[in-house]
Design goal:
With about 180 residues, the chain is an alpha+beta fold. The chain folds into two domains: about 1-75; about 85-180, Ribosomal protein S6/Translation elongation factor EF1B (Alpha-Beta Plaits), CATH 3.30.70.60. About 55% of the residues lie in helices and about 25% in strands. It is built from four helices and four strands. A four-stranded antiparallel beta sheet has the order 1-2-4-3. Helix 3 packs across helix 4 (about 130-140). The longest helix is centred in the first third of the chain and has 71 residues, at about 10-80. It starts with a helix and ends in a 5-residue tail after the last strand. The model has no long low-confidence stretch (mean pLDDT about 85).
Length: about 180
Amino acid sequence: MNFLQTLQMREKVLVVCAAVAIILALVYWLAIDPLLSNATRLDRQIRNAQQELETLHAHRREYLQRQLVLDHINTQIKQQTNFSIFSRLEELALNAGTRDKILHMKPTASSPSEAYTEESVEIKMEGVTLEQLKTYLYEIEQSPQFLKIKRLYIKPRLNDRQLLSVTFRVSTFTPKDQQG
């Protein structure tokens, strides 16, 4: 304290101001800055968590939509009666006027599943018009039986560009518990 008594009033004010500034700086660096940094970090974490929550809600909506589609397909598969896929495809080709355009219909290997048995038929057609093909494919997709078209290949014929060569696969599914 003797140090302060030897100083003039102006020097005392400067020393006290400097001491107050140092104390305020220390309080800021040791207490306030860490709190503000923490608050900023927490705000960032809250924003990230909100974005993740929005993403999770979007995934949930997508999952529920897909679950509805899957439930509809499962119901459709379980309600269908046993039928021959070959006979049904020939009948639909006759209705569409494309029966004489089919070169062959042959069974193909299917991917295994725990719940369903997939039966697939590869169909090769020659000299079919786009309108005939569209009608036949529509008949297949709209069939009361669960028939799905896979791997559709279309090529125009070289001698007549209006006629097409077409190869595609049609699959149907049967629940494994319905087989007997």
